[in-house]
Structure formats: C-alpha cells, structure tokens
TrEMBL record:
SMART domains: Cyt-b5 (SM01117). This is Cytochrome b5 heme-binding domain-containing protein. Coiled coil: none annotated. Keywords: Lipid metabolism, Membrane, Oxidoreductase, Transmembrane, Transmembrane helix. It comes from Populus tomentosa (Chinese white poplar).
Length: 447
C-alpha cells in the first residue's frame, strides 16, 4: 500500500555515506550495503564513491538484468521521498533498455577468439625470434612483436574485467589470469581496483586515479594546491620536485610513456603485497610469478647484455602506443573536483571523455576503446557493438546539448600536448613569478 511506505529525504540519505554506514538508492528504493561492500565484485571503492546517493544509472550501466533479483535482501524498507529522474537519465535508461532487448550486451562475436589466437601466434613468433635466430634484427623484431602482444593481451584483460568474454565465469577468470597476470605481469585485481574507480569518477581530480600522476604530470592547475587523493587516501604534494617535472611535462610526455610500464609493475606489487583485501590474491600472485619467470628467462636467452637491454626497452616502448591512447581519451577532456554524483551520470561521462575517430579496420588496434564515451556509458557492451551504437549516442548528446568529441589520433595528441603545455606554463609562473605588465611594474617601482 502506498500509504504504508516509509520515506527518507535525499539529505537524510547523504548521511549514510561512509564505510560501515553505506546506503544507496536505486530507482527510489533505499538499500543498506554496509556489510556487503567488501564482497562487491566491483570493489568497495565503487560503492563508497557513490554512497548516500541514488545510483540508478551507474547500476544499470554495470549490471545485467539478472542482478536486480539480489537487491531485495539489502532493502531498508525506505523509499526516497524527493526522488526525481532527469530527462537525460530517462533517455539514457531507455537507450540501455533498447540495447538489452536487441541482445547487444550478449552478442560478443568472435573477437575474443581472434584476439587470443593472434596472441598465441605472436608469442610463438617471439619465442622463435629469440631462441632460434642469431640476428640482432630478429631479436629487435621479436621485442616489437612482444610489445604488440602485451597491448592485445591488455585489451583481453580489459574486456574480461567488464563482461564475460568466455562461456562461463570460470573460463572468463582463466582468460583474465592468462591475458592479464601471466602474459603482461599486471595484476587484474589492481586493474579492477583502479579502473572501476576511474569509470565511476571519470575525470574527478581528487577521485579518479587515472588523473593522479603527481609528481610527473598534472592536467589541471588545481593539483598545485596539493589536493588529497580520495582514492589513495593521501595528499598529492606539489613540492619543488613536482613543480619542476610538471613545468616540462609537454616535453617529457612521450618519453615517460615509453617506460610507463614500469609504474604498472610497481603498482601491481604494492597492491598484491599490501594489507588491502581483494579477491583472488593467491591467483593474482601466482600469475605474476609466472610472468616474472618466463620473461626474465626469455631475456636471458639473448646473447649479450646490450641486446637484452635493447629487447626490454623496445618491447616497453611499443606499449607506449597504448599508454598514450589511454591518456588521449581523458587528459584533454573536462575535469571537476569532488565525488561523482549519481544523478548526472550521462553528463559526467560525456564531459570527461574523448573518442578517437578511425576506420573500422583499425578497431583491433584500439581494442574498441577509441569509442571511449560509448564504452563509459555502456561498459558491459562488447567492443564489437560500440561502433554500431555510436550514432545513437551522438544523437542523444545532440538532443541534450552535451559534448560529443571525436578526434583523429593526431588531433587528440595535439589537444593533449596543448593541455599539458598550458598547465606547464602555469607551473613555471608559480616557480619563477614574472611581472604581468612590465610598464605597470616600472611605474610602481618609483612610486
């Protein structure tokens, strides 16, 4: 009965926004997920970032229809009194429903099998080039192939983390274990931890870990205030060292990308051997041990140290293509501070992302992530469907007067370097202030 319903206001819901007291609302019904947060497959950070809010759009984006049946056990008995849905959200939910009816979230095609086959083939080429060839050029070519193998493996890990690429959850986890941990040396657990936070808090300077690269990079002058990272739980100190690096970041961007993989290995070890709770710790550690067994052994088979160093640096440098791509999707987009809000999901995703335009035959190269906005709006959608839904997303953006930015790879690089340069010049002004108006300064010097 409608008269028997119990209500709380949005302000009252906001009070339950911390660990141990974590409530959310979905379609106006209030749920208490305090005790379950650590068991959440997407991690507790995803829930904490949106705690005390209506999270309907984010729930729809990340969960299949079968997930709704599990909500009842968390229902508090309360409904949200001032629950409202914006016109943008209504259209987004309608579009998501249409895609579900068309089966677009289930039609994966054969992309995963093709990708796995290509990875296996590249791995064989690498082994042959290192073990069976004596030419330094063959060794260099093997290193380049290994770099491309890592790129494609990362796409498989990414896809399997967002949706089930294989026929069962067990096979899906196996794909993550092989393509993520064992072949690339990067923990899928670390990736899930950071990537889910990135999706939900897309381009929030203090909540999105994918923008928090102090002391090396800063995409906005807000970082000059040594803001606190709500993801890492510490302050991002903008000290003289950070100021120096940021002042030249538009020059160091590409060189740093060539060795960015080292940071991913470091982040993996920091998480795996931390006290933080996360699922499948032993499996992740096993996968990393496998990587750090076969990769050093492979490198040791090269005839001398100069070739070994060349092999490692060349393979790392190839993966810079992927690291650059990830930066292009977000570095030059809109940013904000504070936690994400559940009632402007669509708007925040459009503001914080850039698409990369390319021909369909290049989709394999970008792993589907050239459709970054489409992926952020529908993260469970297989990459093979993103090009198909892109025109509908564009129409929705146009209808609600929201940004839809699709740039060529070159243009996206120009935008990114321009953003980094603008912030670098601001950092230089802070470290070595100069008069803005020399005539005014000269006059005031003499009174």
């Amino acid at each position: 009965m409608e008269g028997d319903k119990k209500y709380i206001t949005g302000e009252e819901l906001k009070q339950h926004n911390k660990e141990g007291d974590l409530w959310i609302s979905i379609q106006g019904k209030v749920y208490n997920v305090s005790d379950w947060a650590h068991e959440h497959p997407g991690g507790d950070v995803a829930l904490l970032n949106l705690a005390g809010q209506d999270v309907t759009d984010a729930f729809i984006a990340y969960h299949p229809g079968t997930a709704w049946q599990y909500l009842d056990k968390f229902f508090t008995g309360y409904y949200l009194k001032d629950f409202k849905v914006s016109e943008t959200s209504k259209d987004y939910r309608r579009l998501a429903s249409e895609f579900a009816k068309l089966g677009l979230f289930e039609k994966k095609g054969h992309i995963t099998m093709y990708a796995l086959a290509s990875i296996a083939l590249m791995f064989c080429v690498v082994l042959y080039g290192v073990l069976c060839c004596q030419s330094v050029w063959a060794h260099l070519g093997s290193a380049l192939v290994l770099g491309f193998l890592w790129i494609q493996s990362a796409y498989i890990g990414h896809d399997s983390g967002h949706y089930q690429v294989m026929k069962s959850r067990g096979y899906n986890k196996f794909a993550q274990f092989v393509a993520g941990n064992s072949l690339t040396g990067i923990s899928i657990a670390w990736w899930k931890w950071t990537h889910n936070a990135h999706h939900l808090a897309c381009n929030s300077l203090d909540y999105d870990p994918d923008l928090q690269h102090i002391p090396v990079f800063a995409v906005n002058s807000t970082f000059f205030n040594s803001i606190k990272s709500c993801f890492y739980g510490r302050y991002l100190d903008f000290d003289p060292v950070a100021r120096f690096f940021v002042s030249y970041q538009h020059w160091t961007f590409y060189p740093v990308m060539c060795v960015a993989r080292v940071n991913l290995y470091l982040q993996t070890f920091l998480l795996l051997f931390s006290k933080r709770k996360f699922p499948d710790r032993a499996l992740n550690i096993l996968g990393i041990l496998i990587f750090w067994t076969w990769f050093p052994l492979l490198v040791s088979c090269l005839p001398n140290w100069p070739e070994r160093v060349m092999f490692v640096l060349a393979s790392f440098a190839v993966t810079a293509i992927q690291h650059v791509q990830f930066c292009l999707n977000h570095f030059a987009a809109d940013v904000y501070t504070g936690p994400p809000k559940g009632n402007d999901w669509f708007e925040k995703q459009t503001g914080g992302t850039l698409d990369i335009s390319c021909s369909s035959w290049m989709d394999w190269f970008y792993g589907g992530l050239q459709f970054q906005l489409e992926h952020h709006l529908f993260p469970r959608m297989p990459r093979g469907q993103l090009r198909r839904v892109s025109p509908l997303v564009q129409d929705l953006c146009k209808k609600h007067n929201l940004s839809y930015r699709s740039l060529s790879f070159w243009e996206a690089n120009v935008w990114t370097i321009r953003r980094l340069r603008n912030v670098a010049l601001q950092a230089r002004d802070l470290s070595n202030p100069v008069p803005k108006n020399m005539l005014w300064e000269a006059v005031n010097t003499h009174g």
